[in-house]
């Protein structure tokens, strides 16, 4: 697998299966570059290449699956998410900057938290609030 940079906007990234290369847009900032690479690698790990190009409904589903796996990988440490939320309560953009991910990645991860993960974050925020 090779990774290359090129001017491909408005695309952020593309996985070219025939060349076994992931191309990222050269103008992405670091957070978006990491998120896009994680997304393209998720397509590979989900074996989306092993199938025919999907109809539109399935293409949307594949993108969602890749987004979900990428955000789970980029934000796998719930303690770090809790710390970011504690340091920047009510400010998703600042919390995502702290975590070095785009805000849409943090938002997706927050919408996919398990009940145990939600409880951990709430407990962390409560401890900080009581300390103030």
Structure description:
With 132 residues, the protein is mostly helical. The protein folds into 2 domains: 54 residues, no CATH class; 58 residues, no CATH class. Helices cover 60% and strands 11% of the residues. It has 6 helices and 3 strands. Strands 1-3-2 form a 3-stranded mixed β-sheet, with helices on one face. Helix 1 crosses helix 2. The mean pLDDT is 92.
Residues in β-strands, percent: 5-15%
Q: How far apart are the termini?
A: 50 Å
Question: If you average the pLDDT, what whole number results?
Answer: 92
Query: Which blocks of ≥5 consecutive residues have pLDDT under 50?
Result: none
How would a textbook summarize the main sheet?
3 strands, mixed
Quick rundown:
This protein has 132 residues and is mainly alpha-helical.
Keywords:
60% helix, 132 residues, mainly alpha, elongated, 3-stranded mixed β-sheet, 6 helices
List strands and helices in order, with pairings.
Elements: E1 2-6, E2 13-16, E3 21-25, H1 30-45, H2 56-74, H3 78-87, H4 92-99, H5 103-111, H6 115-131
Parallel strand pairs: 1-3
Antiparallel strand pairs: 2-3
Organism: Oerskovia douganii
Protein name: ImmA/IrrE family metallo-endopeptidase
């Amino acid at each position: 697998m090779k990774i290359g940079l090129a001017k491909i906007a408005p695309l952020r990234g593309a996985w070219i299966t025939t060349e076994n290369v992931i191309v990222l847009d050269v103008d992405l900032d670091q957070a978006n570059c990491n998120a896009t690479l994680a997304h393209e690698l998720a397509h590979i790990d989900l074996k989306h290449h092993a199938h025919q190009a999907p109809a539109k409904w399935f293409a949307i589903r594949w993108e969602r699956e890749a987004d979900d796996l990428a955000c789970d990988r980029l934000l796998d440490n719930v303690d770090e998410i809790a710390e970011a939320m504690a340091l920047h309560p009510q400010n998703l953009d600042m919390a995502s900057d702290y975590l070095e991910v785009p805000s849409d990645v943090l938002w997706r991860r927050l919408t996919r938290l398990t009940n145990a993960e939600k409880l951990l974050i709430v407990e962390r925020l409560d401890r900080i609030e009581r300390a103030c």
